Amino acid sequence: MSKVINPICADKAQSHSSFTRGAVEMLPLCISVIPWGILAGSMAVQAGLTFWQSVGMSAIVFAGAAQLVALGLTLSGASLFTILVSVFFITSQHFIYGLTLREFVSCLKAKLRLPIGFLLTDELFALSESKNKRAALTPGYLIGAGLAFYLSWNVFSLMGILMASAVSDLDKYHLDYSIVATFITLVVPMVKNISTLVGVAVSLVLSMILSYCHFDGAIVVAGLSGMFAATAASVLRKEP
């Protein structure tokens, strides 16, 4: 006799399998941000945050680039307005991520949409777009991958917080290079047409020139210029 499988049990098994697969596939990116997390934790302490404030920043904000920029601006004595505007533009790509995944996420219940939205990072979005698996994408996969990265980020940030008081001058080890290395691995696989290449090239060149000239908001200006350049190239080439 053939064994009858309960559909509910099958769905649970599939969800568990997707959750595990997402967590496993996120591990390489989790490892790559070890120095990045340590840097964020140590900078929080250097900026004058208490232990629990530093832990809470990583646990609640959960945005590496935003945390580092906010902490760097705080250390430089920037105003609250400057910090808010800079963080807004640096994290504005999440609007695009949300719109891209809207078709998949909008039909889910709030108990699934909310954790996916909170866990949605550059790394999670890149992972979901890295393969032709949109049809096979599941809530379990996204939550598994996102949760693995979230836990890793908080563990590495905690390491940085603890090391800040034990190791002097962590910044001299140039841990911030991990930020560049991580984003290179995220961006390069997504350059699939001329317009995207134009946008990346414009952002790269402008960010280097403006940073060399000590221009305030260099990364924000370079990023926005890259987006406009990519859009213009797409329109001129009549790309879909």
Q: What integer is the average pLDDT?
A: 78
End-to-end distance, in Å? 53 Å
Query: Strand portion, in percent?
Result: under 5%
Number of helices: 12
Note the main sheet. Answer: none
Sum up the overall morphology in one term.
globular
The beta-strand count equals 0
Written as H for each helix and E for each strand, in order along the chain, the element string is HHHHHHHHHHHH
Helix content: over 70%
Count of separate structural domains: 2
Task: Note poorly predicted spans.
Answer: 1-10
**Rg from alpha-carbon coordinates:** 20 Å
Structural class: mainly alpha
Structure description:
The chain is an all-alpha fold and 240 residues long. It has two domains: 167 residues, no CATH class; 50 residues, no CATH class. The protein has twelve helices and no strands. The radius of gyration is 20 Å and the shape is globular.
What brief labels describe this structure?
240 residues; 2 domains; 12 helices; 75% helix; 0% strand
SSE topology sketch:
Blueprint: H1 7-32, H2 34-46, H3 51-61, H4 64-75, H5 80-90, H6 93-105, H7 110-119, H8 122-129, H9 139-164, H10 177-187, H11 194-212, H12 218-237
Helix pairs in contact: 1-9, 2-3, 2-4, 2-9, 3-9, 4-5, 7-9, 11-12
Summarize the structure.
The chain is mainly α and 240 residues long. Helix content is 75%, strand content 0%.
